[in-house]
Write a structure and sequence with these properties.
463 residues, alpha/beta, Rossmann fold, Serine Threonine Protein Phosphatase 5, Tetratricopeptide repeat, 3 domains, six-stranded mixed β-sheet, 20 helices, Photolyase/cryptochrome alpha/beta domain-containing protein, Crypto/Photolyase_N_sf, Photolyase_Class-2, DNA_photolyase_N
Length: 463
């Protein structure tokens, strides 16, 4: 199956260099060797030119580390990259992991490349890397969207107000992008000589110890990185827990979650691959499939739309709609029933028992069910001296502890707590007309059952 043209952007329209040594692919957002259209396009171009493929990755640590990333995030990522290196070697493709920013690594290696293929990414730091690469290379430059179902500009040319405005646009388009991506055969295989500065990722734990990282948040046992683990989890979910997903997805104790978000965040599995598996699942019914695809495509790609069209998506002033900022400002001086410091919140030392349980799951296992994430965020707003401080603390805790933090979904979901992609509701103290969530929402599921599940998960983290 051909890669859809809407997925491919030509950033530099230069003819391929005649004395080049390879076709270069900078793997950054799509950290996988399977179902990766950028990789497959690089192979197609290399086969056409009679050249081998070189896949590179720029690894940041120390003072240049990825913002807010810590040992927890890097352990998961390196597990995935170790699998990538082994899978590429089996296909006859060289993988080079180098210390440095992705732009530094790509610009240096592009000097010997016939062309350079990039992933697509929408965070500010990613867009800055790609802009630096565009200015710094002289070879042909292609960028391939591999981590949403419908490319962002294809789905919509503007910032969408809510899921209801984006949903029909995606529904009209997504069938043409839900196609199997077959792996291409590599014609020119084997190692590429004179490559220097590579890091050995075959033992991710050993490499992790050599990096200078924030070690205050450690790795988790609950999630192992890599496409293989993502595929295993997806298969298990579809075979054992998908039946009744539509009705059970908002019940944390029900186990009706696929836990794909960490793998999607690091690009270790394709959303197209997931969607095709969901459509083909023998379990579940139409409601289950519709509910899952709503979360995977509509909600997730609404977040991509927001980040793409919003400069300062991580800022209270620029991420929120005007009506929300206005109503929160009008109630900024309302008395708060309780105030907690960021440290107290992080340690789960509040008066709200089940909020503390959810915080424990997040802090110790790197995950929290979506139903609890909404409640968790709304309470931080209620317990903060100002909405601006609440927004900042919510985002810092989110990005620090969640494996899927620092993601378009994360930035968008935190902003949703403060009114993004929502409408005005009944006016209340502190919240104004921003949606409120009370302790009564805990009655919608088995909170004690959820606590028991969290206790088991956290005990398992101890080994």
């Amino acid at each position: 199956m051909a890669i859809q043209s809407d997925r491919i952007r030509v950033l530099r329209d230069e003819p391929p260099g005649e004395d080049a040594d390879y076709v270069l692919y900078l793997m950054q957002q799509s950290q996988r060797a399977a179902f990766n259209p950028a990789l497959e396009l690089a192979i197609e171009e290399a086969n056409r030119l009679g050249l081998p493929v070189l896949v590179c990755f720029g690894l940041l640590d120390g003072a240049n580390g990825f913002p807010e990333a810590n040992v927890r995030h890097y352990a998961f990522m390196l597990q995935g990259l170790s699998e990538v290196a082994a899978a590429l070697e089996k296909r006859g493709i060289t993988f080079l992991l180098r210390r440095g920013t992705p732009s530094e690594v790509a610009i240096d290696l592009a000097k010997r490349a016939a062309l350079l293929v990039l992933d697509r990414g929408y965070l500010t730091i990613q867009r800055r890397w790609y802009a630096e690469i565009e200015k710094g290379v002289e070879c042909r430059l292609l960028q391939v969207e591999g981590d949403v179902v419908v490319p962002v500009e294809t789905a919509s040319q503007k910032h969408e107000y809510a899921a209801r405005t984006l949903r029909p646009k995606l529904n009209r388009k997504w069938d043409e992008f839900l196609n199997v991506l077959r792996p291409r055969k590599v014609k020119m295989s084997g190692p590429i000589p004179k490559l220097k500065g590579g890091l050995d990722v075959s033992d991710p734990d050993k490499l992790l110890k050599k990096l200078t990282l924030d070690a205050t948040v450690g790795p988790v046992r609950r999630f192992k990185g890599g496409h293989g683990e993502a595929s295993r989890r997806l298969t298990t979910f579809l075979n054992e827990a998908f039946e009744g997903y539509g009705a059970g997805r908002n019940k944390p104790e029900a186990g009706a979650a696929s836990h794909m978000s960490p793998y999607l965040h690091f690009g270790q599995i394709s959303p197209v691959e997931i969607a095709l598996a969901v459509r083909a699942a023998k379990s579940g019914d139409t409601d289950d499939r519709s509910a899952y695809l709503e979360e995977l495509i509509v909600r997730r790609e609404l977040a991509m739309n927001h980040v793409f069209h919003t400069d300062g998506y991580d800022s209270y002033e620029t991420a929120l709609p005007d009506w929300a900022k206005k109503t929160l400002a009008e109630h900024a001086d309302d008395p708060r029933p309780r105030l907690y410091s960021e440290t107290e919140l992080a340690e789960g030392k509040t008066h709200d028992h089940y909020w503390n349980v959810a915080m424990r799951e997040m802090r110790e296992t790197g995950y929290m069910h979506n139903q609890l994430r909404m409640y968790w965020g709304k309470k931080i707003l209620e317990w903060s001296p100002s909405p601006e401080e609440g927004f900042a603390v919510t985002l810092r805790l989110n990005n620090r502890y969640f494996l899927d933090g620092r993601d378009a979904n994360s930035f968008t979901n935190v902003a949703w707590v403060y009114g993004l992609h929502d409408r005005p509701w009944q006016t209340r103290k502190i919240f104004g007309s921003v949606r409120y969530q009370s302790e009564n929402s805990l009655k919608k599921f088995d909170a004690k059952g959820y606590e028991r599940a969290v206790t088991r998960l956290c005990e398992a983290e101890k080994g």
